[in-house]
Amino acid sequence: MKIFIAFFFFITTIIANDLELESSIFNTIIQAITSKSNPKVYIHTEVESLEKNPKNLQIIQLCKDSDIVVLSTLKNIPQACDGKIFFGTRYGHLKNPDVIGAFFWQKGRPNILFYKSRLNMYGIKLDENFGKYIENDK
Q1: How many domains is the chain partitioned into structurally?
Q2: Is 136 helix (H, G, I), strand (E, B) or coil?
Q3: Domain containing residue 54
Q4: End-to-end CA distance of the chain, in Å?
């Protein structure tokens, strides 16, 4: 029983740390994209790390009031989101030409990717620290 309890706390700690890391990465990315210190974020479907630990982000319920939309799925995006900046949580989201970039996990590592032409479409200029994450469209 003691081993089970120790294992449970170990796993819980690892998961909590991963969610906090993911939230910090999202915060940095979203603040850079919007150039705001407390941007309004609409989450389409769910992104657990942002919902549990939004830090400097304002999670809002209405897409029309958002600065950026974080997508966990491309299905059934509300019409109120038309014209908003879309940011994905999966590599596959980049197939949609309206998605400017994505943050996703691959082989246990965090990955960030932006497409230059899509950033230009919205007039977004990212800090030079993001340079290695920006690619030309394929």
Answers
A1: 1
A2: coil
A3: 2-135
A4: 53
Cα separation of 117 and 114, whole Å?
9
Burial tier of 116 (Cβ tally within 10 Å: 0-12, 13-18, 19+): middle
DSSP state of 61: S
Identify which of 70, 72, 91 has the alpha carbon closest to the alpha carbon of residue 81: 70
Give tens-digit pLDDT for 2-50: 453 433 333 444 444 688 899 999 999 999 999 999 999 999 999 999 9
Please give the Cα distance from 126 to 132 (Å, whole number): 11
- Inter-residue contact 125 to 116 (CB < 8 Å): no
